[in-house]
Amino acid sequence: SRQLRARLGGYFFDARLPWKEDADFAHRIDRAGIRIVSVDGCMIHHAPLSVATDLRSSFRYGIGAAIARHLDVTLARPDRSATRSFRLHGLAAALYMLIANRARAAGYAYASGRIRLSRGRWPAYDPRR
């Protein structure tokens, strides 16, 4: 639909949020009442991530969560339970989830500190870029 961008606030992905999967985009789709349906036979293949790349992504999720909170953007809370990972996938998955959660918390703390130290001026950007 040509009206989709306007229904989502004038933009698709918010350049202010530095994560790859834009949780804000999903929230705005939901808030606009746009129904998402699965398409039988459709598959999306993602390139496998290295451990370092995945942990860097977790760190950036934390940065994005802090920025979203600063901007008063409501995001769905993802299931990041190490207990659930243990039940479903075993000890190695649970330990990895703990490490990834710490990386996310470090990103959140880093961004929260930068926002506080800059008195809310960091990061400076235009969401329509």
Strand content of the residues, in percent?
Answer: under 5%
How does the helix and strand content classify structurally?
A: mainly alpha
Q: Termini, distance in Å?
A: 21 Å
**Outline type:** flat
Low-pLDDT segments = none
Task: Report the helical percentage.
Answer: 40-55%
Order of helices and strands: HHHHH
Describe this structure in words.
The chain has 129 residues and is mainly alpha-helical. Helix content is 53%, strand content 0%. It has five helices and no strands. It has helices spanning 4-7, 23-31, 51-70, 82-89, 91-117. The chain is flat. The two termini are 21 Å apart.
SSE inventory with pairings:
Elements: H1 4-7, H2 23-31, H3 51-70, H4 82-89, H5 91-117
Helix pairs in contact: 3-5, 4-5
Task: Name the features.
mainly alpha, 5 helices, 129 residues, flat
Quick gist of this model?
It is built from 5 helices and no strands. It is mainly alpha-helical. The model has no long low-confidence stretch (mean pLDDT 85).
